[in-house]
């Protein structure tokens, strides 16, 4: 699977998570019973679908090897792609990378920083 997985957090979610190091999940995560992650190639689609109304978000990168397969499962989701799902709380202090992202005038988040970081860390 992918070397890195990513979690997008809304600003309020990030403020709560960084103060406790624990993220219990967004409303969608809680409803589905797991923390949704994306691979880098899935990020733009995830941002477009779930964060379209946000002007700024926080992006965190994690090494999927942090969790055993019993907690981090790759399961079919959007368009049949396998997405990483964490069945448990997320310790945000274990993030290997973090980027505040602001939406551009074109309505997308600039992922060039995380992309460059991945090139140096793969």
Task: Describe the protein's architecture and organization.
This protein is of the alpha+beta class and 122 residues long. It contains four helices and eight strands, in the order βαβαβαβββββα. The strands form three sheets. Strands 1-4-8 form a three-stranded antiparallel β-sheet. A three-stranded antiparallel β-sheet has the order 3-6-5. The chain has a two-stranded antiparallel sheet with strand order 2-7. It is globular, with a radius of gyration of 13 Å. It starts with a strand and ends with a helix.
Helix count equals: 4
State which percent range the strand residues make up: 25-35%
Q: How many beta strands in the DSSP annotation?
A: 8
Sheet with the most strands? 3 strands, antiparallel
**N/C terminus separation:** 13 Å
Shape: globular
Class from secondary-structure proportions? alpha+beta
What's the average pLDDT?
94
Rg measurement, Å = 13 Å
Helix content bin? 25-40%
Q: Could you spell the SSE succession in H and E letters?
A: EHEHEHEEEEEH
Which runs of at least 5 residues are low in confidence (pLDDT < 50)?
Answer: none
- How would you write the strand order of the largest sheet? 1-4-8
